Amino acid sequence: MDDDGLYSRLKAYEGRPAAVSGTGRDPVNAPMIRHWCEAMGDRNPAYTGPGAIAPPTMLQAWTMGGLGGHPGRARPYEELLALLDEAGCTAVVATDCEQEYLRPLRPGDEVTFDTVIESVSERKTTKLGAGYFITTRTDVRAGPDLAGTHRFRILKYAPARGRTAPRERRPRPVVNRDNAGFWEGVREHRLLLQRCTACAGLRFPWLPGCHACGCPEWDTVEAAGEGTVFSYVVLHHPPFPAFEPPYAIGLIELAEGVRVVSNVVGVPYDKVRIGMPVRLEFRRYDDELTLPVFRGVTV
Ligand code: ZN
Fold first, then answer.
1. For the CA atoms of the chain, what is the radius of gyration?
2. How many folded domains does the chain comprise?
3. Which structural domain, as residue segments, surrounds residue 146?
């Protein structure tokens, strides 16, 4: 192994603390249980009403620090991560977790926990890059009782060369039989609106039938390209690959009366305003992708 003794230095952290005497931000409580069950679609009656218990898989949720950081995080864990950063393993990915449940948690239980660095693997080569798996074990207590353990594994790795090189591309549109005509139009630099052949109502985005009269027959009308900003948001966060925040996303009302969501370009993001006139143009993002966007017309 050519890691200059790095592995033995990492290994020395096994058994050392990653968090000491952490306390849950909130006691186990019914609102968090309710939100969790709604998010998971879990209707198990054990989690509601008098005598309810918390879903066992919420174990980690009671120990999380939220945006404020990790409560009780200990120096050795920070040092271990710093050592890996110095060795070039600057990237991190969570790989898996295992939980054991020993006693149910109930609303009102005050949770405390300790986390230990349980193991550091030898250097492993993965598709992401070479690095080390670090497993931590968190013992979660309710009062004096051990309620469960939560093992969490991450891979700290040096990103494989070349992986990050190609510039991220914009997401591809999902083209299906209901909207294929729209994308054919875009290829010809035409913004096509559907028109119901029964009631003549225009619609956008494309749908299989008329939302006003239900008629499935339609033809198309090409938008002239004039419109105004009906509403907009400026996206600052989160960053998505191929997008550079901040940028303005407009809900554009076309002169024909329908609304289209697209980028507002040619105007600084903080100068976009409701009512601003815009004009359609087609922007080529890469060899395969051209999209309709709207250029702000400042007056
Ligand atoms: Zn109709």
1. 27
2. 2
3. 3-159
Ligand 1 centre from 203 Cα, in Å? 9
User: Tokens standing for 122?
Assistant: 């030898």
Does residue 164 sit within a domain?
no
- Separation of first and last alpha carbons in the chain: 67
89-119 burial code (b ≥16 CB/10 A, e <16): bebeeeeebebeeebbbbeebebbbbbbbbb
Asked if residue 173 belongs to a domain, the reply is: no
> What is the per-residue burial (b if ≥16 Cβ within 10 Å, else e) of 179-201?
bebbeebbeeebbbbbbbeeeeb
Could you tell me the pTM of the whole model?
Answer: 0.55
Cα(221) to centroid(ligand 1), Å: 14
Distance CA 141, CA 118 (A): 18
Taking only the tens place, the pLDDT of each residue in 169-227 is 888 998 999 999 999 999 999 999 999 999 999 999 999 999 899 999 999 999 999 99
Distance 199 CA to ligand 1 centre (A): 4
Q: Three-class SS of residue 271? A: helix
173 CA → ligand 1 middle, Å? 26
Is 165 within a domain?
A: no
